[in-house]
From TrEMBL:
Keywords: Membrane, Transmembrane, Transmembrane helix. Pfam families: RTE1. InterPro entries: TMEM222/RTE1. This is Uncharacterized protein. The chain crosses the membrane at residues 6-25, 171-189, 209-238.
Length: 249
């Protein structure tokens, strides 16, 4: 009876967390979510309804895997016209069909003036300071597509993050040096939510899985979850920083 009461109490606690996720997530300013701040001249409009994110990195949660580790997801990079490109399988870069549904987060790397072909914003500022010879946005992405159209896909060694990191390195975005680890951290911390629904879509499934796991599995579930996270994250850390040729970028 005591065990049942404990599980019942914990179930109520998890339910409260789910309700909090649905109701208390902060409001996203529509103007803030749909365009870059006005301090950039002639900002490029972002249109989530049409899945158009000009010069952006975009992210969405993965089925099942993101339910257990919510900061792991699928990532893509967008052309100047906002069309999403993502490395979706062996020798295949998907165009305008984001593999795991509409993006929930995005980060706009630069914006283009409608009166000029020259990009502006943080992307260009970093290039000007470095003085390096870098590709234009479109040419860099085109080269990455050509390279990854001849790459085998593996979630462990050559995945969607590899493709986007490759493009950002060609662009010299923030001085380059991008890999699957710092890119995942960057989009998780710097990415903007498309809207409130996107936040719920990202965090509600992990809360539900965690709640049911703890109710029915207790400490055993939590132990196996932590082991799984440790092994998966450890693999990418070792493959990125210790065995640098193991994970393709």
């Amino acid at each position: 009876m005591q065990s049942y009461m404990n599980h019942n109490s914990f179930g109520c606690f998890v339910l409260m967390l789910v309700i909090y996720a649905l109701v208390m997530v902060p409001e996203v300013d529509p103007e803030h979510a749909l365009m870059i701040e006005e301090n950039y001249p002639n900002p490029m409009l972002i249109d989530p309804k049409r899945d158009r994110f000009p010069c952006c990195i975009v992210w969405s949660p993965l089925p099942v895997l993101s339910w257990f580790i919510p900061f792991i997801g699928h990532i893509g990079i967008c052309r100047e016209d906002g069309v999403i490109l993502d490395f979706a399988g062996p020798n295949f870069v998907s165009v305008d069909n984001f593999t795991f549904g509409a993006p929930t987060r995005y980060f706009q790397c630069c914006c283009l003036s409608p009166y000029s072909a020259e990009p502006t914003g943080e992307y260009v500022k970093n290039h000007d300071e470095s003085g390096s010879d870098v590709d234009t946005w479109e040419s860099a992405i085109r080269k990455s597509i050509q390279e990854f159209q001849h790459q085998s896909y593996s979630i462990f060694t050559c995945n969607c993050h590899s493709f986007v990191a490759n493009g950002l390195n060609r662009l010299g975005f923030q001085a380059g040096g991008w890999n699957v680890v710092n890119l995942a951290i960057f989009i998780y911390l710097k990415g903007r939510w498309v809207n409130k629904t996107a936040m719920v879509k990202t965090y509600l499934p992990p809360l539900v899985v965690l709640g049911f796991g703890l109710i029915f599995g207790g400490g055993t579930f939590l132990t196996y979850l932590l082991i799984f996270m440790f092994v998966l994250i450890g693999w990418f850390l070792l493959g990125t920083y210790c065995f640098k040729k193991l994970i393709h970028v």
